[in-house]
Amino acid sequence: xxxxxxxxxxxxxxIFRHGSRGVTKSRTSALTTSSIRFxxxxxxxxxxxxxxxxxxxxxxxxxxxxxTCQEENRKLLETVKTIDDKYKRSLAENENLRMRMLKQVxxxxxxxxxxxxxxxxxxxxxxxxALESVPRDAVKPDNPHLENLYKGLEMTQxxxxxxxxxxxxxxxxxxxxxxxxxxxxxxxxxxxxSKPPGTVAVVSKIGYKLKDRTIRPAMVGVVEAP
Length: 226
Hints:
59% of the residues lie in helices and 14% in strands.
């Protein structure tokens, strides 16, 4: 038919061309209508048809992703455990540091007067020596000047010792006690068969403690072993 169409005029060729398109279109529409009418093209799959199984490659990818997540979770748990341990150690160290600082502050408050106390001990020693230099039986009413002076020294010594005790400074007089190298300083040995060896027999200078800290050991004579 193509040679015949080629021999026709342009107008006829145009008619033939449009006519063939219409026939083709009508045939296509008819086929589509028939397919829809008889349910051939869009028929749903049977109800008892089994679903298509997933490819094995997807299962492998899922398993790998799960293993990766589990490994990351394990690492995160270890990191959390390490951080928690460091945090607890830091809290303990800070608490220990706080307690040490409080102790140092308290010691500075209590023992800050230690040097001053040592200097005042010299005054107490001078007062004690002055009182010991005057025999007690020499203090009589017929000598009022000496009596008043002696009583004044006694009152001064008593007041000074009261101030010492108020600030935690106490005397250490170990006469008759067992020798203790932490509180006593042996300056000589003493022979006395009536006392056991190591006993303090003579106290040449009284010692002092400030809040249980020895700031001056007592100078003593210790009984030696026979």
